[in-house]
Amino acid sequence: MCPERGEHTLFETQRMRALLLIMVVALVLPLLAACGDDDDDDGDAAEPTATEQAAAPEEELTEATIGIVPVLIYGPVLLAHEKGYFEDYGIASELSPLAGGADMVTLTANGDFDFGIGGAGPAFFNAINRGVELTVIAPLHFERPPLATPLMVSKERYDSGELDSIEKLEGKKVSVNARGATEYWLDQALRQGGLTIEDIDLQELGFGDVAAALESGALDAAMLGEPLATQAEQNGIAVRLTDDFVSDFQPTFVFVNTSFAEENRDLVVNFLAAYLQGCRDLTGDDWANTENLEMLNRQTNVPADLIEDAARTYCEPNGEVNIDDLETLQEFFAARGLLDYEEMMDVESFVNTSYVEQALDLIGEYEE
Question: Would the pTM of this model clear 0.85, i.e. be above it?
Fold first, then answer.
């Protein structure tokens, strides 16, 4: 018996609804599954795609503030900064220029600088003796004849015979750029003529003002650092009275706040690894290549050709500190009455070679 028309219509309607429901479920289930992958019951995140991995940020660098004086003896630091060596070892290096002197010691000890680099002068020794936490971790530079900080006099007065020998400087006005390690340089130069630093009228004048002072007669002689020494010669203003009075002597060092170094050992080791890479780029015959000269020019504003002509300085590519030189400096300043103490400190007590040793494990020993 055939169904009535109304019954047939209801059946067809129910069938159509069932088919529609099946289609909706088929469309919605994949979407629900996709959502479940992003936030499933285990809390595991979906694996990033290759594009997402490439766009992921690099490891964050550790910031480090480095106290410097923007002159050529700081070449290892300047090149390590310019060439990205610090970044290679996870350090975002910030170079903070100073005129030099005691400020470098104070700012490093106080934590304003993470790394201080400068001469071991009276302020350095007096601070350590007072209990200020400072540790030497590496040397900065040393010199060999022809020295990069010679004793110079006016060319006019030299040519006239007025000041053509060291002996004639007795009682004369002779300058250093700052009280400290340069005083030792001057004393050693004067001893070649039978004088000492006590036999002259010691003055203090920044290297940048020396040439004009020699030309005007305001100074009789001066210690003058490169490249200004070569520039004064090329301009016919001054001549070198002597430039061979020391050899392989370390007057400048890298130092840190002792507690900071102990708490941030990896940072200190990585700093030294990068720093020594910069030093090695300046070691050997290739030190004055075009790339190095251009980078040093950017950091010091000294023309590249002048850097190439100037007497060079040297650095220790394995970071070996000469303890004897530190002892010599301490004794020299004590004899000059510039130290606040009488009993000499054991200089090895504030030198820590373990940081360099670890850095050498990273970069290997340098062999000539």
Answer: no
